[in-house]
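Backbone-to-sequence.
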């Protein structure tokens, strides 16, 4: 999948997770942080690619991506169970740096960021390339499995651009519209 599809899918999954686990009380800081961490969590698995959208999101990212790129192969550790655990552990420690007076429920943010990260891996499992879920083994997993692997999605081609991306956008819009009354409770006193 392309970065734009991962961004919208990650925001949708992160927001849906937020609505599933959070109490509908006044918490604008938590909701804002969920948006940021869901966005970043959805792009984080592609940190192993210097051309990834995440490197264009952070300051000096283009240069950092070029430094890291030779050490990581694309769709290697970052698209595996080990990579998911490492990324979530890093996010956990990053969130512990947030002072409590900011009013951010870091546990909810961590859950939403983890869901967004996993959404990226799940989405990539539907592509022709598959994912090395059990890295360091070379075995790649894809949905649907062999012998039906011929119907998997080709990254960046017409089916993703004309079918998947608009459907994921529609899903995000429907989620926001259907939860608008809860969003108002969270944002406004």
């Amino acid at each position: 999948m392309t970065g734009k599809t991962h961004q919208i899918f990650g925001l949708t999954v992160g927001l849906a997770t937020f609505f599933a686990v959070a109490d509908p009380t006044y918490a604008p800081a938590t909701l804002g942080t969920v948006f940021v961490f869901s966005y970043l969590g959805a792009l984080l698995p592609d940190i192993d690619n210097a051309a990834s959208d995440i490197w264009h999101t952070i300051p000096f990212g283009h240069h950092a991506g070029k430094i890291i790129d030779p050490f990581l192969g694309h769709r290697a550790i970052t698209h595996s169970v080990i990579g998911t655990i490492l990324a979530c552990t890093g996010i956990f420690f990053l969130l512990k740096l947030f002072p409590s007076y900011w009013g951010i429920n870091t546990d909810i943010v961590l859950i939403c960021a983890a869901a967004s990260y996993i959404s990226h891996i799940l989405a990539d499992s539907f592509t022709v390339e598959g994912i090395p879920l059990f890295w360091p083994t070379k075995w790649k997993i894809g949905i649907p499995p062999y012998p039906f692997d011929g119907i998997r999605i080709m990254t960046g081609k017409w089916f993703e651009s004309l079918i998947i991306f608009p459907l994921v956008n529609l899903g995000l819009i429907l989620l926001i519209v259907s939860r608008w009354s809860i969003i108002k409770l969270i944002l406004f006193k």
